[in-house]
Amino acid sequence: MGTVSPIGNDTASFVENLMAGKLGITEITKFDASATGISVAGEVKDFDPKLRLGKKAAKRMDLYSQYAVHTALEALEQAGINEENTDPYDMGVIIGSGIGGLTTIQEQVIKMHEKGPKRVSPMFVPTAIANMAAGNVAIFANAKNICTAVVTACASATNAIGEAYRQIKEGRAQVMLTGGAEASVNEIGIAGFAALTALSTQTDPKLASLPFDKDRSGFVLGEGAATLVLESEEHAKKRGAKILGEVVGYGATCDAFHITSPDPSGEGAARAMQAAIAEAGIKPDQVGYINAHGTATHANDEGEAKAINLVFGKDSKVLVSSTKSMTGHLLGAAGAIEAVATVAALQMGKLPANIGLANQDEKCQVNLVTQNAQAAEIEYAISNSLGFGGHNAVVAFKKWSE
Question: Which UniProt keywords are present, listed alphabetically (predicted)?
């Protein structure tokens, strides 16, 4: 697994800070955000693309692609995948992004407006389009099987992981690089979500992202990426891989309800969870942890809580947390870093907290991990992602054991 996030630019740092309950939300430093009415974001800090990509290659990519390639190279290095043990024709790429190269789009539209269309960069299209994270990862990894991109708003990365899992399960590939990348903490990204009144206007970072809290006031925009190396069990064992966890189920549904609001009944999200659990061949009471979508908007948290209750029952002991309380909402990359968080929870027998919670909303009756990470030996966990457009995606994971 490879990770770039508001709480760490590699997987080890991300997991350590996650379990320590570190807040990655800070005052916006990338630009003067005062005119937007938004003060805080989950910015990636001290990221140097040259470390893994090199200066020349980095210059020809939007920031979201830089994040994607950086995490893919970390994941490949950790996995020990190379051309000696993996045929390039057996390795594919599916990377999700909600928006793609928004930084490039903003820069080039401003340039066109100020200096004319002839001054638009010839690299505008190849850096801005939403499939280019996947394309760049495939080039760096020499992955010659399927290479595609998933764009399902905030469900993008979880859909990508699920579809990559299916490629392997159906025998179409032996290895898949999958996850999501997003870099939307810029003027147009903040302004757009602010205009939707979706973002928290809190000025205190500690009070800005409060999933399931009665005083929540909207989500905090985050950025980053994560890439997971998935492979068939046969391929992994043949090359002596250190296996971190197992993907055992995937569910994807649509609310068909509204372009931005989730179905308040939670029915669509519930069906996605049920599908992932059914494919895993288990019952709901075998799931020990849910990494919730938990955006800290009133509509999402209430609807998701209802969905969890529909699947697991109102008296369920399944533990729940939203790690967006620490990272903010990474949009199309959210499901990727949350998959890393879920696998780490299974590995460590420790569940990340839903930090900052002071007053749980009575309309969100779920069993939250609050304040501190909680020890819990669990075998199965699920990660939920719910996106604009009614997209619901859930991946089920199992703790690895020989």
Answer: Acyltransferase, Fatty acid biosynthesis, Fatty acid metabolism, Lipid biosynthesis, Lipid metabolism, Transferase
